[in-house]
Design brief:
By secondary structure, the protein is α/β, with parallel strands linked by helices. The structure holds NADP nicotinamide-adenine-dinucleotide phosphate.
């Protein structure tokens, strides 16, 4: 039978939001228990150099930053477990979280489940994931040394991935559906100045060609203006077209906006359920930065601490 356990504060998610919440709750002597899924450290562990997190003037690798945050959280008494939460009951108190290993009850819950990379939903994409189709340049870029690589997207992620991939690739095509990049000016400049990157404007990928286990051989492209189809021979496609909030567990218990983001109360990490707090990318469709996620994790932990003091009175 699965174990049963109770904690004052449970945290779901181990990105910058969840780990910052764990640091603050740990320092408040609340001995938080943090549960995370198969990607410890969250999305930052799939990124390359983080140049804009304060305190690292030379930049820091995403996985290293997350390892440091985890070390800091455990130093203050947080327990961190790789256990996927499959069910939550927020209608009864204490709240109940179910994982394959145990049933965890908690007086306060901090949700920091983040967001998942969006996929194109085109033929060949799913079938060839892990065989040339990827959403993580850091993880998979080095497999395509001296090959031609394509990146789909026009935001900061796509530009960052395209730049990073030029370390390995002989050439990188950045495929964007419009004639203007969404990315910040500095990222745009880096892409446009990089001699190894060619931007294919007004273009979408309609099919990934190839087979397992040999991998991707080409992409079918469509010009969004003319409708013309073409074939681009390449060895890999990195999809970097944004994210979907990981809010499915809370669909029935918390208000979500039209894109699935959890809606906190204004200027707060509190939600419509007292004792349930939300932070990080699962509630943020505007900034989605490591530093804003960390800041909101801090807010969630401070508000959770105040809530626990209130219910103890
Ligand atoms: P994003 O800003 O939402 O950009 C997504 C891109 O993918 C857009 O260019 C969009 O095209 C395109 N796209 C979306 N769906 C598509 C589809 N079905 N087919 C083809 N193209 C599609 O997402 P992001 O780049 O992941 O960035 C998310 C946030 O993280 C942003 O706030 C960003 O600034 C931040 N970020 C920052 C850094 C950094 O500062 N170093 C690095 C990465 C991310 P349209 O432009 O036409 O909508």
């Amino acid at each position: 039978m699965a174990d049963r356990e109770h904690t004052a504060v449970a945290i779901i998610g181990s990105g910058p939001a969840g780990l910052t919440a764990a640091i603050y709750a740990g320092r408040a002597n609340l001995a938080p228990v943090l549960m995370h899924g198969p990607l410890p450290g969250g999305q930052l562990t799939t990124t390359t150099e983080v140049e804009n997190f304060p305190g690292f003037p030379e930049g820091v690798q995403g996985p290293e930053l997350m390892a440091l945050m985890e070390k800091q959280a455990t130093r203050f008494g947080a327990t961190i477990r790789q256990e996927l939460v499959t069910e939550v009951d927020l209608a009864h108190r204490p709240f109940t979280l179910t994982t394959p290993q145990r049933t965890l009850t908690c007086d306060a819950l901090i949700i920091a489940t983040g967001a998942t990379p969006r996929s194109l939903g085109i033929p060949g994409e799913k079938e060839l994931t892990g065989f040339g189709v990827s959403t993580c340049a850091t993880c998979d870029g080095a497999f395509f040394r001296d090959e031609i690589i394509a990146v789909s997207g026009g935001g900061d992620s796509a530009c960052e991935e395209a730049n990073f991939l030029t370390r390995f690739a002989s050439k990188v095509y950045l495929i964007h559906r419009r004639d203007e990049l969404r990315a910040s000016k500095i990222m745009q400049e880096r892409v446009l100045k990089n001699p190894k990157i060619e931007v294919l404007w007004n273009t979408v990928v309609t099919e990934v060609q190839g087979q397992r286990p040999q991998g991707v051989t080409a992409l079918t492209l469509k010009n969004t203006k003319s409708g013309d189809l073409s074939t681009l021979p390449c060895a890999a496609l990195f999809v970097a077209i944004g994210h979907i909030p990981n809010s499915g567990l809370f669909r029935d218990s918390l208000p979500l906006d039209e894109n699935g983001y959890i809606v906190p109360n204004p200027n707060s990490a509190t939600t419509s359920v007292p004792g349930v707090f939300v932070c990080g990318d699962v509630q943020d469709h505007v900034f989605r930065q490591a530093i804003t996620a960390a800041g909101s994790g801090c807010m969630a932990a401070i508000e959770a601490e105040r809530y626990l003091e209130q219910i103890a009175d």
